[in-house]
């Protein structure tokens, strides 16, 4: 859907992405390498802004980072994977809200995170940082990439979501 559509639908898109991250703990970001070979990377540190864009903390992303050097175009996928959401939808024969969304856009160059961005990641991971693995995985975030989105495509099951989007 067009840039105008993404602006109009952005509050709902943000809600769907937040539900997707909450239920599966990550979003997937798709890229392609210099030879056109696709790569999908799970990213648990995506944050969306009030306008069609956001950022993610770029750590542990060797293939993603390498691909972005030659082609900064991305596709972000978020799916609400709560079992209760899917079971309820299957029982009723319709979705009460969109099950997922794909966002198309670009990722910017690596840059130092701002204080606000660091506070946002700390708030998200504070609970798991009490655990040894949480401290190992979710510490030392310092750099982000900005995301800019120009279009979107819903995850669609037309028979069960005629009134959505």
Classify the beta-strand content into a percent band: 25-35%
- What does the overall shape look like? globular
User: CATH homologous superfamily - what is it?
Assistant: Electron Transport, Fmn-binding Protein, Chain A
User: How many domains, as an integer?
Assistant: 1
* Radius of gyration over all CA atoms, rounded: 16 Å
Which architecture per CATH? Answer: Roll
End-to-end CA span = 10 Å
Biggest beta sheet summary: 8 strands, antiparallel
- Strand count: 8
Which features would summarize this protein structure in a list?
globular, alpha+beta, 165 residues, 5 helices, Pnp Oxidase, Chain A, 8-stranded antiparallel β-sheet
SSE blueprint:
Elements: H1 3-24, E1 27-32, E2 38-43, E3 46-48, E4 53-57, H2 62-70, E5 73-79, H3 83-92, E6 100-107, E7 111-112, H4 115-125, H5 132-137, E8 143-154
Antiparallel strand pairs: 1-2, 1-5, 3-4, 4-8, 5-6, 6-8, 7-8
In a nutshell, what does this entry contain?
It contains five helices and eight strands, in the order H-E-E-E-E-H-E-H-E-E-H-H-E. With 165 residues, the chain is of the alpha+beta class. Strands 1, 2, 3, 4, 5, 6, 7 and 8 form an eight-stranded antiparallel sheet that branches.
Please give a structural write-up.
This protein is of the alpha+beta class and 165 residues long. The protein has one domain: Roll (Pnp Oxidase, Chain A). The chain is 35% helix and 30% strand. It has five helices and eight strands. The chain has helices spanning 3-24, 62-70, 83-92, 115-125, 132-137; strands at residues 27-32, 38-43, 46-48, 53-57, 73-79, 100-107, 111-112, 143-154. Strands 1, 2, 3, 4, 5, 6, 7 and 8 form an eight-stranded antiparallel sheet that branches. β3 and β4 form a beta hairpin. It is globular and about 45 Å long. The termini are close together. The relative contact order is 0.21. The model has no long low-confidence stretch (mean pLDDT 91).
